[in-house]
Design brief:
The chain contains six helices and four strands. By secondary structure, it is α+β, with helices and mostly antiparallel strands. It has a four-stranded mixed sheet, with helices on both faces. Strand 2 and strand 3 (59-64) form a beta hairpin. The longest helix has 51 residues, at 125-175. The chain is elongated, with a radius of gyration of 35 Å.
Length: 200
């Protein structure tokens, strides 16, 4: 089916689509808030400026529109019949950008959850939020385990460093002691010393 709008009308229509505070984002935020999760929005210091960030759980959430991010197999993602090459390139660029941002976040030990617009319909919303919450809790458990292991490794490293420092100090002190032959050794050496007179 061809687009019934003129290019100018389509341009005006598309320009009114927001990239922040969309209805899908608001739905996810509202449900998470009601379940007791506190978050930050659009954190620019993180790759991709995630829509929702839960620092306590080291989790970043992207709420993606199915059309703009090319949700494969979704009824909401169809390539327009006009200006096909432009839209295909646009969506492909968005997909590459998404994959790169996820890779960057994971490289700095952030967990990424992607939520699609089609998963937030009235019928699917509870199950989708349950899935998100399960992932958040799993991320927190993994973070706690990692933090405890890091703390234990840090304590072990500190103990080893103190031990090495003590050994180094002991060796340094030993090296600076004046060398002295004990009296018993000196006397024994003197008693057994062979002189030319004794050989005759």
């Amino acid at each position: 089916m061809l687009d019934k709008m003129t290019p100018l009308q389509r341009h005006v229509c598309m320009s009114h689509i927001r990239s922040k505070d969309t209805r899908p984002e608001q739905a996810v935020r509202r449900e998470l808030w009601q379940r007791g999760y506190r978050y930050r929005l659009n954190v620019r210091t993180l790759p991709g400026t995630p829509d929702i960030v839960l620092p306590k759980y080291r989790t970043a959430i992207f709420v993606n529109g199915c059309f703009w991010h090319g949700h494969r197999g979704c009824a909401k993602y169809t390539v327009p019949k006009t200006n096909v090459d432009f839209w295909k390139a646009k969506v492909a660029h968005n997909q590459e950008h998404d994959a790169l941002n996820i890779q960057r976040l994971e490289s700095i030990f952030w967990n990424v959850i992607t939520v699609w617009e089609c998963e937030l319909s009235k019928a699917l919303l509870p199950a989708t939020i349950d899935r998100i919450e399960t992932r958040i809790k799993a991320n927190k458990a993994n973070l706690d385990t990692y933090t405890a292991r890091r703390r234990q490794d840090r304590r072990f490293a500190i103990e080893q460093a103190r031990r090495r420092k003590g050994i180094a100090a002991f060796i340094e002190a030993e090296l600076h002691l004046p060398f002295r032959i004990p009296d018993k050794v000196r006397k024994a050496s003197y008693d057994t010393e062979i002189t030319p007179d004794s050989e005759e």
